[in-house]
Design a protein that fits this description.
- Chain A: Pfam families: SoxD.
- Chain A has 107 residues and is α+β, with helices and mostly antiparallel strands.
- Chain A has 2 helices and 6 strands; from the N terminus they run βββαβββα.
- The longest helix of chain A is centred in the last third of the chain and has 10 residues.
- Chain B has 2 domains: 213 residues, FAD/NAD(P)-binding domain; 148 residues, D-Amino Acid Oxidase, subunit A, domain 2 (D-Amino Acid Oxidase, Chain A, domain 2).
- Chain B contains 11 helices and 18 strands.
- The chains are: A alpha+beta (107), B alpha/beta (415).
- Chains A and B meet through strand 3 and helix 1 of A and strand 12, strand 15 and helix 10 of B.
């Protein structure tokens, strides 16, 4: 069972307490953007088999959104961090690089 | 290929079954082909079969990283139906369902298609209105479905508790021509027929790269070396995103796990397929007597072919009110497959940014029922380079253009 630590309340929550929100760090596009930009924001997903940065909500806990770095091929969790973060924090990137030497980095 | 028939059985019975030949060959790859289909699941093999049968293209290789039919084709709940709301969905699923009716004869391989009837229970007033609407839509689409009341549901499925209290059965959408088929046999039957046409089915051969030149695919790098091709068809379901990335484009697809399970075998007790979408579970009984049960997908991105236990628990908990009988049953096996979910929960049959590369994916949780229709439409697309009427609406440019085929709204659940 997947267990993520909520970075706000510190609870080690198992997945029945959480709701997944899929890919994190999406670049949002507003009015005046092209069709391609809207498509990239709305639908096109990295969907990697491996390291994935994603949004989660601690629904049945503090109720807040946070972000997690996780491996979709092994379900290993590298870490969680607050949602008010525009890119993965350096300590989590370092941890992923230590665990996955062949990882291509944040794309 | 020696035909299977009653005479073949009699002949082999006389000589201790020594004369059966292998159903399909296991060749080494040639240096190049007219068409390479990546993925030897149902959809990939059906694509190859209809390329040969409908378009006379037989210099085809179907390459597969694992074993034939070992992905979602071997992991589904074998349900076949075509009672969709949107016209383009109804057209391709109904094509598939009608091809299933004659598939055993067509392939000379018993796929055990069993049109036992399929019920979609309405357990809220919202669902009653929704399914009545679907029945009317199906009438216009030429798909035979009907609305039946709760008493008739009870007559069809005596083990069902229709009184609730939480989710009473208010009626059901019945598709009499829906049912099930033997999922492995569908893959095996297509594989045997493809092999008989001279196509190469190459298992244990993983694609590791897509070689291209000037916007055209020239071949694929594989674990068995480079194989050249004039056209490439990517039909790999859960790993579509990975193969597309090798080819240099991104898909509106996310991979999640979908689980199913079977109970211990019991005496025949339910001879239709029942889907309950409000509580989100579906159930039928296999020929061995096992109750085959499925539910909703797990919700996070996942490539592990196994899901979370609490989803199975939710599915069973939801079905127990309607089927009290299952509360005392032991569950024998559980498994998961990786399904490729699109933004509108409808498939993609599409041209790609590479001129001679085509993709068939996004069938999500409902691919098995579509296999023959999907292969038929994909073969059309690959052979002619342009989608035919069945595939026309399923291009992936629909996400950019905003013309969704929104079955997620129509069905209320993944389907």
């Amino acid at each position: 069972m997947l267990i993520l630590e909520c970075p706000y309340c510190g609870v080690k929550a198992e997945e029945t307490e959480l709701s997944p929100g899929h890919e994190a760090h999406l670049k949002r596009f507003g009015p005046g953007s092209s069709d391609e930009q809207f498509e990239s924001y709305m639908f096109a997903r990295k969907n990697p088999k491996g390291v994935h940065f994603e949004r989660w909500r601690h629904t049945y806990g503090c109720g807040k959104w946070f972000l997690a770095a996780r491996c979709t091929a092994t379900l290993e969790v590298f870490g969680t961090y607050p949602a008010q973060t525009s890119e993965p924090p350096a300590d989590i990137v370092a941890k992923i690089k230590a665990r996955r030497p062949n990882w291509e980095g944040v794309k | 290929m020696k035909r299977y028939s009653v005479f073949a059985i009699a002949r082999e019975a006389m000589r201790h079954h020594t004369g059966w030949e292998r159903a399909w060959a296991s060749p080494l790859p040639k240096s190049s082909y007219d068409v390479i289909v990546v993925g030897a699941g149902g959809h990939g093999l059906a694509t190859a079969y209809y390329l040969g049968k409908n378009h006379g293209i037989t210099n085809v290789a179907v390459i597969e990283k694992g074993w034939l039919g070992g992905g979602n084709t071997g992991r589904n709940t074998t349900i076949i139906r075509s009672n969709y709301l949107q016209d383009s969905s109804a057209a391709i699923y109904e094509k598939a369902r009608s091809l299933y009716e004659g598939l055993s004869q067509d392939l000379n391989y018993n796929v055990m298609f069993s049109p036992r009837g399929l019920l979609m229970l309405a357990q809220t007033h919202h669902e009653v209105r929704g399914y009545m609407r679907t029945v009317h839509a199906n009438l216009l689409q030429g798909v035979e479905t009907e609305w039946i009341g709760p008493e008739q549901v009870k007559r069809l499925v005596p083990i069902m508790n229709i009184d609730g209290p939480r989710y009473p059965v208010l009626g059901a959408l019945l598709q009499k021509r829906g049912g099930t088929a033997r999922h492995d046999a569908v893959a095996w039957g297509y594989a045997r027929a493809c092999s008989a046409m001279g196509m190469d089915i190459i298992q244990q051969c993983e694609v590791t790269g897509v070689r291209q030149q000037g916007g055209q695919v020239t071949g694929v790098e594989t674990t068995k070396g480079f194989i050249g091709t004039k056209k490439l068809a990517i039909v790999v379901a859960g790993h579509s995103g990975q193969v597309a990335e090798m080819a240099g484009f991104r898909l509106p697809v996310e991979a999640v796990a979908l689980q199913a399970l079977v109970s211990e075998p019991i005496k025949p007790c339910i001879d239709v397929v029942v889907m309950a979408n409000t509580v989100h579970g579906y159930m039928s009984q296999s020929d061995k007597g096992e109750l085959v049960i499925g539910g909703g997908t797990d919700s996070f991105n996942n490539f592990t072919q196994r899901g979370s236990f609490h989803h199975i628990e939710e599915t069973l908990r939801a079905l127990i009110e309607t089927f009290p009988i299952i509360s005392r049953l032991k569950m024998l096996r559980q498994w998961g497959g990786i399904v490729d979910m699109t933004g509108d929960r409808s498939p993609i049959l599409s041209k790609t940014p590479l001129g001679n590369c085509f993709i068939n994916c996004g069938w999500g949780t409902g691919g098995f029922k579509a296999i023959p229709g999907s292969g038929w439409a994909m073969a059309d697309l690959v052979a002619k380079g342009e989608p035919g009427p069945l595939a026309a609406e399923f291009g992936m440019d629909r996400f950019r253009e905003g013309r969704f085929i929104d079955e997620s709204v129509a069905a209320g659940v993944a389907h």
